[in-house]
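Appendix B. One record, verbatim.
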Amino acid sequence: MALLDVSGISVSYGRVNALKDVSLQVKEGEIVTVLGANGAGKSTLLKAILGAVPLKSGGITFADRDVTRAQPHKRIAEGLVLVPEGRRILISLTVEENLKLGAHMRRDGTAIAGEMDAIYARFPNLAERRNMLASCLSGGEQQMLAIGRAMMAKPRLMMLDEPSLGLSPLFVQKLFELIVELNRDGLAVLLVEQNTGKALSVAHRATVLELGRVTMAGDPKTLADDPRLQAAYLGAGEATPA
């Protein structure tokens, strides 16, 4: 049984069809990556799964519940979270205030405090800067803060939208090590990423979008050897330093 089941969804912006009959699944404990060029519909897919954009057709099930018409806050409460492209942290707030925002719908104060300590243990740089404004963090540290904030929502599945964008090679390596570590701890991950080589290296399954449609899907190693994917994506999309 899939944790997330996206079944034949379509999304339109006016006359523009952003997604056309897209289906994918994420099982418990899986990393699934979605690849594609700019404008392929990858970010729209994540927003549709979260409920931030309406569906024209199709359905979405999460944790055995039909969430097709559920509001985003209901999906987040069920354990479905999104780390958006560009991180979207609040730079006018401190590191700790940003982390607390991730738990704003929770009421289990003791558990929240324990998880805050665990995040600081996982991200020592954030612990050292907990009372500093988030604007003082480097790009890589801001990405770690965005992921830490998402972890405070106690997710079962984390969606990551272009997490390596604009990061130095060192932070890109740390980021993908973190994704693998979180997955080993039991977190399912849906990863949208233009760094094709890195994404395929950590994924259990992969899907390729082109112009809003699924054109390839399956085992990452098999896809990595596909001449079409190699020609279109591999070797293009490596991260550049911030």
